[in-house]
Amino acid sequence: MDNWMELTFPSLSVNEGFARAATAAFASLLDPTIDELSDLRTAVSEAVTNAIIHAYGNDRNAMITLRCEAEGHRLRIVVKDTGCGIEDIELARRPFYTSKPELERSGMGFAVMEAFMDSVAIESAPGEGTAVTMEKQIGSARAS
Prior knowledge:
By secondary structure, the protein is an alpha+beta fold. It has helices spanning 15-27, 34-55, 89-93, 109-116, and strands spanning 3-10, 63-71, 74-81, 119-125, 129-137. Helices cover 33% and strands 28% of the residues. The longest helix is centred in the first third of the chain and has 22 residues, at 34-55.
């Protein structure tokens, strides 16, 4: 690993924007395109929002950890919570599925992450929390 950063912040909806900005700032070291930065910000937004709403149910005292790692032009982003966990990961990954229909959630969080990143892996244990690991090659279409 060439470089990394890790932040821990309260599970507040205002911190979703902070997580997006921190990720974009870290990724800027890899000389991304505007589209790549937009993709990263969108994917991080979805992962952090999932933790705030689904893992913690808007518990303002809970914490979320964001870790970014760079190796060459490969960026790995991990968003981790210690919330309720996911009972059925495959069900949660299905487009339009939501565990909070009363909140009028679209159920597209994981689908959006998968659309904007090269890979998305989810590790979760009920009662222990969830880690979403996303990877993206930055600048892969350009000459290095």
